[in-house]
Amino acid sequence: MGETPPRRPRRPYARDTDPPGRHSRGMQVPRRRTILAVAAAAVLTTAGALGTPAPTHAAWQENVRTVSADRTWQVARGHGVWMYGDSITAADAPQLAGSLHSRGLTLAWDATPGIPTEPAVDRLLERLHDSRPPARLVMALGTNDGDARLVAAQVERVMHAVPPTTRVWWVNTWKQRWLVTGGDSDRRAADLVNAALAQADRRHGNLAVVDWSVVVAAEPRRYLRDGVHTLPAGREARNGLILRAVTG
Prior knowledge:
Residues 1-31 are annotated as: Disordered. The protein is α/β, with parallel strands linked by helices.
């Protein structure tokens, strides 16, 4: 009679999962891990484009758009802030929304990674067609534009679409990517966009520029992870600038 072969050791179950019952088939997937995996997948779906340099203009339409619910826009119109932006706004707006909420204000935002200024302004005008204008409007656009003249034209579209009673803040740009070539041309383009925004500021009494560029210029690598998108310190600083502007 031969020896009985050794039994294979059973794999331990995760600490937060009970062993499967008699009718189960194979290992159960831990519920907590499933929830975390689904949550992580959702975050990656929204932020997948944020880990790379700013997308090209042709690619932005394929990126995930983050837009608040209609009810949020309605509340924010009179008791909060409307905001339009690109990948930086998509990443930073949730924290800003929390800061505004603690002050009794609601943030409604519409953001798509890589979006140039013109299609974002189109979205604003579409919303204004069906809604009265907001008391406060933040435009955080221009990073994905190569021609400052086009940005200047879009600023004028915005200012002619809202009444003088709407306060408009435009966050200026910093772009000098150090993970890809072309950082110097990035910087020149951003400077021209910022100059166009400064000129528009002088023309319109209800428009003010939020000077993000001057803050980043002091310590770019403290605030940015790639020369465009914010690190936690940059998110805190940029949101702080916007918060002080709209509540000051």
